[in-house]
Design a protein that fits this description.
Elements: E1 2-10, E2 16-25, E3 30-34, H1 41-49, E4 56-61, E5 64-65, H2 71-77, E6 80-83, H3 95-101, H4 108-121, H5 123-126, H6 138-150, E7 156-160, H7 168-185, E8 188-192, H8 196-202, E9 205-210, E10 213-219, H9 220-225, H10 227-233, H11 245-250
Parallel strand pairs: 3-8, 3-9, 6-7, 7-8
Antiparallel strand pairs: 1-2, 1-4, 4-5, 9-10
Helix pairs in contact: 3-6, 6-7
The protein binds adenosine-5'-triphosphate.
Length: about 250
């Protein structure tokens, strides 16, 4: 579904931030991109999305080279959803209006049908449909961002640090929601994350970047179990707490 071939990319006339990255992601899997601050995780996601154009190599979606295709065309023609890193809900709009913003291009009956499905899936949003988004918790705002991306039934969902700024409990809720999207829809999900242990707990495969290159790639379960990986890239031993019950159920 997504294939990144030897991609190089950077900003302006600056150096290459990505120095020859290869990555694949298929339908029905969560692929997480990990690594230290500034290693190029978000830049890679922006290359896949179309915000940053590769200087070399190619990004393919469903076998087509989409390296030069702009974000809005990918959303429209390749059914891509993108949820950016920073809190991107509109605080002064209602929950309903925020979700419906993602469906402006859909015919009204389809839009209403999709909206009703989403409200059934996310009761925390359904109960607050007419409230301003400013009244939501951090976790609920992140679920709202997801719902806005999901209303157009994407095939590919790109998430830039969905757990940023969330408490551990909210983080669990958001990751459980992401895993449920994969299980329910078979969507191809690519997720940049800082919280490596949590991300690996729900992901199927992972790429660890270092200085703009892929340092390690593999099955998430294998990477979680690898002592060298833990020492070098995951900040030591896993947290002592047991996984959240919903996460345990997911894995
Ligand atoms: N718009 C930009 N213009 C110039 N340089 C940028 C821009 N965005 C990012 N960079 C630089 O690119 C490098 C990689 O940034 P990127 O955001 O991809 O890293 P990251 O791994 O996602 O980091 P973090 O985990 O801190 O979010 C950094 O040195 C950063 O300063």
């Amino acid at each position: 579904m997504i294939r990144v071939n030897n991609v190089r990319a950077g900003y302006g006339d600056g150096p290459d931030i990505l120095q020859g990255i290869d990555l694949t992601a298929s339908g029905g899997e969560i692929v997480t991109i990990l690594g230290p601050n500034g290693c190029g995780k978000s830049t890679l996601l922006k290359c896949i999305a179309g915000f940053v154009r590769p200087r070399g190599g190619a990004v393919e979606m469903e076998g087509r080279d989409v390296s030069a295709v702009a974000v809005h065309d990918k959303v429209k023609h390749h059914r891509m959803g993108f949820v950016p890193q920073t809190d991107n809900v509109f605080s002064t709009l209602t929950v309903a209006d925020n979700v419906l913003l993602g469906a402006r291009h859909l015919p009204v009956p389809e839009r209403n049908e999709r909206y009703a499905e989403l409200m059934a899936q996310y009761p925390s949003l359904a109960s607050k449909q007419e409230r301003k988004a400013s009244a939501l918790s951090g976790g609920e705002r992140q679920i709202l961002s997801l719902a806005r991306a999901l209303i157009s039934t994407p095939k590919v969902l790109l998430l830039d640090e969905p757990s940023a700024g969330l408490s551990p409990l909210m983080m669990h809720e958001v990751f459980a929601a992401i895993a449920a999207i994969r299980d329910r829809t078979g969507m191809c999900i690519v997720m940049v994350e800082q919280n490596a242990f949590e991300a690996l707990s729900v992901a199927d495969r992972a790429y660890v970047l270092s200085l703009g290159k892929v340092a390690i790639e593999g099955r998430a379960a294998d990477l979680l179990a690898d002592p060298a990986m833990r020492h070098l890239y995951l900040g030591g031993e896993p947290p002592p707490a047991e996984p959240h019950p919903r996460l345990a159920a997911v894995s």
